[in-house]
Amino acid sequence: MAKVGIFFGTDTGSTRKIAKMIYQKLGGAADKPLNINRVDAATIKEYDLLVLGTPTLGEGELPGLDTECEAESWAEFLDANESLDLSGKKVALFGLGDQVGYPDEFVDGLGELYDYIADCGADFVGRWPTEGYSFNSSEAVDGDEFVGLVIDKDNQASMSEERVAHWVEQIYAEFAL
């Protein structure tokens, strides 16, 4: 059976909570979620299938990129692993954002993570519809879908568990678990 790893960056703990929810919904198909600031590229490469999550801060960037954020984020990992090779790996992404507070850069951090991981040669699964969200612009939109699951705990918290459940079913099938 393929080995599934869940990795996340977080600034307030919300992304960690969603990562744990995904882990629970995968029902033993994945290892426990790990904070990206506690692993290296070798750890990531141990997994055949990856679930990667990120928050979005302020103007839409990944935490730590072009900011003074000292939070647990992807910034240090990305900087330290510029030549990460994820060829042959299937990757599902999820991101958190605030569509009311930041409608012009909603979940842009998810789009930034997607671009970085795409440059590493990964194959993606887990696209998510944009229906049900209200925003002006997002770097995480490709065509008429988000590049991964989008959670808005600030404005649609009551929808989080249902969205995670549906998305986990989707990626379970796309991962062929």
Automatic annotation (TrEMBL):
Its cofactor is FMN. The keyword Electron transport applies. Keywords: Electron transport, Flavoprotein, FMN, Nitrogen fixation, Transport. The keyword Transmembrane does not apply. It comes from the Bacteria. Transmembrane segments: none annotated. Residues 4-172 form the Flavodoxin-like domain. Pfam families: Flavodoxin_1 (PF00258). Low-potential electron donor to a number of redox enzymes. NCBIfam families: flav_long, PRK09267.1-5. PANTHER family: FLAVODOXIN 1 (PTHR42809:SF1), FLAVODOXIN 2 (PTHR42809). Belongs to the flavodoxin family. This is Flavodoxin. It comes from Vibrio agarivorans.
